[in-house]
Each structure stands twice: as structure tokens, then as C-alpha cells.
Fold this protein.
Amino acid sequence: MYKTPYLASVPPYGVYPPLITFFHEYESIDYESTLKLVHPLVSAGVTGPVLQGSNAEAPHLLHEERQKLVSRIRQHVTDIGHPQLPLIVGYGAPQRAETLVHISEANAAEADYAMVLTPEYWRSAISPSVLETFFGTIADASPFPILIYNYPDVVGGIDITSDTVIRLTKAHSNTVDIKLTCGDDGKADFLHPGLVAGSHGTIAGLANSVPALHREVIRQYRDGNLKEAQELQVKLSHADGTLMKMGPTGVKAVSVHYFGYGSGQGRSSLGTSTISSFPEDVRQNVEEVMSLGKAYL
């Protein structure tokens, strides 16, 4: 997540876990378990959750489910004493009108930012100029600031260029940030390299499981302890690089195994994951980082 130099109203600096969405056995949303995940994350000092991103299986959620999730999480963070916690909500639709409907619904549910995924239908027709028009008109119409979500792996390989981002942020002041899930790095892999490059924090799937460890990398870096930050980053990268092979149900399986709530159930077309089904290298790396994470709670 990289801060643009053109506008100050970006999400506050820090760690943002992309909250997972738990499902029951027959794929209805398990709201109770999903809300349970929020409290330990807030207690660990995360800056705010990202809702309905890739780890939340956003494409598998209906409009009314999306709005209900945002509304219930806003009420929940208020009830536990954090009413000002920023909520970033992800959206991906093949055209502008539906994206703006999603954003309007999120606004009604008291979200703070929209994270907008690149459209990918008719991939061959989506040029840089088409992307600029898409994001620019959404930013101009949105009732709150937007983040661009660049994730080529889930949009047919479309990769937003730095030049496109620069033009967008200069021309549309409501475009305040970008979430980068691109290149050969995993999600948590971006943390330390991003800090060196001037990032404004991190949105990392592994922060659902070890949020305090992500905060510690940032603290060590900002305190000038580069060697300590790098050593922690290596641990995060090993776990993240293997866990990402398991997809969002793998992140859920970690929560089930270590925290005792939810399930590894995905919504079709995803299956179900358990720790015991992980390959040995994934399990070992996850166990190591989970053990390390306890030291920073």
C-alpha cells in the first residue's frame, strides 16, 4: 500500500489485515466467527481491517451480504470501543455502474474507503487509457476516497503501470492510494521492501494470523533497526510465500487451528482446507511464524 504524494487524506499509516469471510458447511456466511476475528486484530494494534478483498472471497458475495458485513463490522468495532477505526472495502466489477452501486452501499454502511479492483472482462480491450477513464470516473463519483487495487493474477494478467497511477492521482484527487499485489512477491513479502521504498503501511493476508509481528517489522524499521526488521521479514516471507499457495481457505485453516473459531470452508468454486492437508513445507513455515508471533502480542 503506497502513499501518493498528491493528497494527505490517505488511510492512516499501519497494518491492515484483509479480513477473511467465514462460511458455514453449506456456504452461508458465518457472521459470528467473522466478527470474532476482528477483536484480536484490534487488540493487536492493527490500524483497520480491509473488507471484501481477495482473502474475503469478495467475488463470491452477494450485494446484500457485502453491505450487511460492512454494517455489522462497523457496529462491532464501535461496540468494542473503536468507532473511528477506518474500514477499507474492496470492490471489483466489470463496469463502472455496478462498481459505484457497491461503493454507494458501502457508504451507507459507514465504510471509509473503497479499494477498486481492475476490471478484466474483454481483457484485450482494456488499454491504459481505458483504465484511466474507469478509475478516474469512479474516483470523481465516489462519496469517499478510493484505493486502486493492482492484482494481475486475478484479472487475467492486467498490470497497472506506474505512469497510469501517477496520472490518475494527479488528475483525480479522490484517488489516494494503491494496493500492490503484483510482481513475484507474496503479500507479506511487500512489507519491508515497501517500507524502504516509502510505503504507507501494508495490507497482508498473514496479518490475520500474526498482526503484531507485522507491526514489529514496522517498529524495528522506523527505529532504525534494519537488521532486526530484515530478520523478521525473512520469517514472514517464508510463511507467506508458502501459505499463499493454499489460497483464502488456507488462511482460514490457520485461524481454525490456532484460534479455534470459524472453519476452512470456502464458497464454490473453492473447497475446504485444514492444517493437516497442508504440504509439509507450508505447515512448518506457518508453525514457525505463529510461534514467533506470540512474542509480540
The CA atoms of residues 186 and 244 lie 7 Å apart. Residues 226-243 form the longest helix (18 residues). The first strand starts at residue 2 and ends at 3. Residues 1-8 have pLDDT under 50 and may be disordered.
